[in-house]
Design brief:
With 62 residues, this protein is α+β, with helices and mostly antiparallel strands. The chain has two domains: 30 residues; 32 residues, no CATH class. Helix content is 23%, strand content 37%. The model has no long low-confidence stretch (mean pLDDT 89).
């Protein structure tokens, strides 16, 4: 778990990993993302198909 103290001696390879972990940890405190969803039933002869789609409306934790 990240703390308020920044690490001092990270190598060039370690810093991106630390940064990725830090951002992932902080993201869980964001509100949930919200989507608009659409469902549609289509029929072609005797076959039925269901189509679904979603659009991100409010960015957040996914």
């Amino acid at each position: 778990m990240p703390t308020q103290r920044m690490p001092k001696n990270l190598s060039k390879e370690e810093y991106p990993i630390y940064n990725m972990i830090l951002k992932g940890f902080l993201c869980v405190f964001f509100p949930d993302a919200e989507f608009d969803t659409t469902s549609r039933m289509n029929k072609v002869k005797e076959h039925s198909f269901k189509s679904e789609g979603k659009v991100l409306v409010i960015p957040g934790w996914m």
